[in-house]
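YM 10:42: Calcineurin-like phosphoesterase domain-containing protein sequence, as discussed on the call
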Amino acid sequence: MGNIYAVGVCACEVKGLCSVTREEIKELLNEAEKRFAAETNLIQLESGRVIFVGDTHGDFEATEKIIHKHLKPGNKLVFLGDYVDRGSASLENINFLLQQKVEHPDSLFLLM
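YM 10:58: structure's back
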């Protein structure tokens, strides 16, 4: 895997202080697609703490805070959708979520 981590790092610098190449985005999308294809349409979670996250609407800062606070061993995060629109950082938000999905496929779930 190339530099998918760079996409997440750049998402953390929303004010345009870094750049992500088209190839890095393509690589992220390809890896995320593989993760989604490996999942069934019905998510069955084992016992443990499950945290459901409502619409983030492009609010990257809120998404980042939720992930850093709650994505811990034993926790499962289920994002319910509406990841983009309204907010000023929709692209950063979805890229960050996809990057986190690639890194934590068994702990983070994105409903589409």
